[in-house]
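Re: the pair you flagged

First of the two:
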Amino acid sequence: MTGNQHLKLVFALSVLLVVGSFAAAQSFRGSIRGKVTDPSGSVIANAKVSARNTGTGLAREATTSDDGGYVLAELPAGVYTVTAQATGLSPAAMNVRVNVGLDTTADFDLTQVEKRQEATQRHSRRPANRDHARCSW
């Protein structure tokens, strides 16, 4: 083998090695990321965000960071129901499609929980005063 042929062989093997490593590094998954805010637009730290694949039932959870952001990474492609919830606020949910190699954004604006005021009416009933007549036979 001449020096020129040896150089061509090394170059060809190097190209195959680099192309092969790129192919192996590709992910067949995607991610969901976003922010959770309250009615005033302020970010919510420590909110719980969960995603459930509607086809397979696969579930993942994350907690928002101090900036209200979250990431649910390495999710298989498919449709997910994503729910965000925080104490004192109404939970919110949406369906999102995760595509291979892409980030899907799902931002949530949680609203205040409406406090229900239940009016309780109390009826006072007096027991009926029934005089039972005694019959003697």
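Second of the two:
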Amino acid sequence: MGINFRAIEAYITRRREDEKSNATINRELELLRGALRLAHDRQLLPSIPKVRVLPENNTRQGFFERPDLEAVVSALPAYLQDFTRLAYLTGWRKGEIISLKWTDVDRDARAIRLRPEAAKTGRGRTVMLEGDLAELIDRRWQARLLEKDGNARIAALVFHPRREARGRLPQGVGDRLPSCRGPRQTVPRPAPHRSPEHGARGCPRTSGDGGDRPSDTQHVRPLQHRQRG
């Protein structure tokens, strides 16, 4: 294989000439390291050449001030407003907020804890409930009771889909919503008006009408093209 330190450095130079950022080049070099390690493990490469890591300086800059936040929140649906405020107040990622359960909220100690398995970094965090954040959690506490099939239940998640928001929630927010591509369900239909010369579904009778016609509660599949023999 013709991959060595000099070839790798030439690749880095070409990518910089293409005006690629150090972060982009580093991600590409990570793939190269993995491929070289695999080739070495399979004894296809006698040694692994050095692949250096380029310095990255892509730290986010600037601040989102409170008036900017409220301008955005005012344009959001009600079920996303506190979700967005908590992200602003804690700096937590969307997936971390989605996973937040009431068992993670200690209202007596006035703290919320992010479980390590729910954190992107794998490290848990604790945020004290004060000021606006405490008021936000109190609002969510009042909204934790849900009604389903005439029965009241307590939501396990701090941010759960309300019935009026169903179908509009971003994917993953709160409980898993039923898929629109689920199995077909049979829905009874009212019997159509029929005259003696019409068949069971209100369609003109033909020589093919008979007892094997599907009933009004069966799913009728779309017609398919007849295959030629």
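Residues 1-57 form one domain.

-B.
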